[in-house]
Amino acid sequence: MRKLNILLVEDNEMEATLFKEVLSQLDLAENIDHKPNGSAAFIHLQQMAKNKKSALPNLIIMDLNMPIMDGQETLAAIKSDPDLRHIPVILLTTNNEPKNVRLAYQHCANAYLIKPDNAVDMEKMGRAIRDFWGLQVVFPI
Fold it and tell me: Maximum CA pair distance of the chain?
């Protein structure tokens, strides 16, 4: 299994810590970079893209409901940027409104997942992400 560089975009520090722990325990991540909102994440990604020595993340896992720049806005910005659009983005949220799901896929989300409400289900979701993104997917170089 290859290890991924992951950008986690989550405004809730407790949820971010839990998800980072799950991904680390599952041995999926080489590195997990955390940003607390979409604006910080997008600025960080743009800086990384400009600095060709910095490796862009293989995968972005992002909350939908965040202050400053929400997940939909950030997703649209990432997928509009020619240097960033190739990075797969998973939206992870408690919001399963059909209009939000539809909008996410219109903005080219690679997956829309509902956040588990307990640690056991969070670990199951982490394993599913590991098994698919860590073992099955071929990433662009």
Answer: 40
Domain range holding 93?
4-134
pLDDT at 138: 86
pTM, two decimal places? 0.93
List helix spans (H) across the chain.
13-25, 38-50, 71-80, 98-106, 119-129
- In angstroms, the CA 39 to CA 72 distance is 11
Q: How many domains does the chain have?
A: 1
CATH number at residue 120: 3.40.50.2300
Q: Is residue 139 part of a domain?
A: no
The pLDDT tens digits for 25-55 are: 888 888 999 999 999 999 999 999 988 767 8
The DSSP string of 54-91 is: SPPPSEEEEESS-SSS-HHHHHHHHHHSTTTTTS-EEE
